[in-house]
Fold:
Amino acid sequence: MNVLFVEDEPKIADFVRLGLKEQGFVVDYCDNGNDGNSRALEYEYDVIVLDIMVPGKDGLAILKNLRRQGRNVPVILLTARNELDDRLEGLNLGADDYIAKPFFVEELVARIHAVVRRSQGDRQNLLCVGKLKLDRIARTVTCQQQQIELTSREFNLLEYLMRSPGRVFTRTQILEHVWGYDFNPNTNVVDVCIQRIRKKIDPCADSSWLESVRGVGYRFRQTEQS
Structure:
């Protein structure tokens, strides 16, 4: 299980990282909020353990940014502050759990397993960006409660891009994921499929959700208004 751990206190960081690794977790560590925010948006994690009080972007700002961009990764807030207002603010911003210092690593491990189990339900399977909603279980796409009919290939491509809003994917990456490795990299099937999806989803947006990046590939716009 891949964990992003953001914490600026060296002693806490050391014992938590050691404890998580002993339990078989792969830990990506940052000691400041700016790096933590960048990694949280760039990479896919199973869970993020996030201290509220870190240099740079604080934990609540990172959490707010993640949820605003449609990232549904489970987040556990970690802080020395234990007042009710802090807990409520974090939970209202979309945190999955809250643990106060001091704590045992065993408790944190249990909390991680609990939020990851919960994330396998509807929340993890529903991708929402702006007015657009994609249900990975029902395999439906809706915009303003109106269902949009997509072929299986169109759905898979849209899901692939929506899972990482703002990230640019090359045509080769899209081909390998959606069509398989045996397709000719010079084919234009990706461009054709993108155009078909745009015709179906763009009428309910102010501008195209699927953005072309010249000479590179495509990305899904992070918010409806960029």
